[in-house]
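Example (one chain per record):
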Amino acid sequence: MRIHLVSGACGFVGRNMVKRLLKTTKDHVFMVDDLSIGRHPSEWLDDFVSEPLSDAEVIGKDKRLIFWKGDFRNLLFYMRENPRYIQEKYTIDFERFADVFHFAAIVGGRMKIEGDPMMVALDLSIDAEFFYWITQHKPKRVLYPSSSAAYPVSLQTTTDAVALSEGDIDFNKNLGTPDMTYGWSKLTGEFLAQIAARHYGVPVVCIRPFSGYGEDQELSYPVPAIAARAAKKEDPFEVWGSGKQGRDFVHIDDVLDFIFLLLDNVQDGSAYNIGSGKLTSFLELIDLFANIAGYQPQIKPLLDKPVGVHSRYANMDLVNERFGWKPKISLREGMTRVYEKQLNDLKK
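Predicted structure:
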């Protein structure tokens, strides 16, 4: 049996990855999530059926999915105590996992990053346990999702904002200061990925996604939240800060496309940007959604809200030169999809 492991499988990126694996392969998937943020598979899988399997669920008519609900660190502990824990507990015949996608993390929008930074620091615990396990289990391929938050905040100010390049993070030089505990944890994860590849021979690749978004993203994130307010034709339209702060928005479908390209070509633990290479301010994003919705609201800045760094966008030159990859979904097409999803939800 060929089986993949997806931690954080019920979060935004995880569930999109699970659906992609179901669509493009005939493989089995072992899903892990504690549902503290993610949604139970019954909420996002078509034709959902399940049956109990000890303390897990077998999902789907073809029984290709197994969902284990719980803290990923607990499962890692069980597998550390008994390397064949999953095989024996659930009577699954496989030697080792094929692709391992590690999306389990304490995540959230700017309110979570700045409002509860010590909780976000638990990512250090999750990643340390994870990387130790893969050096013992030796899966065939591993994806570690880092973040654009790992880049030095000194390069993302109002006056000195630049397109962030992979070389701006060099573990042999001064790393600078990443964005809060979330950025520090992801930077540490990248370092552990390189150690796993270099010292233990585990094929690992890291990604640095910028502002990923999609139709089924939680409303705690800015893109769906702004889209939902545009669908309601909010006027005046509130924006956190001045709205001049900008991000690099990339659709989840493009993110997944590039992940598989990287898995096929990179094994040394190095990290690559995933973005559009274009900076879009939140004022421009609001204007785009308002245009799609067919109205022109007044803007109401909320200067007391957390806004994070001023400008964060990707330099995609290395990716374009090395892999010939560019996102396929334009900003307008992607945001139109998000808007239509929020509009449909509003009508229900």
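Caption: The longest helix spans residues 180-200.
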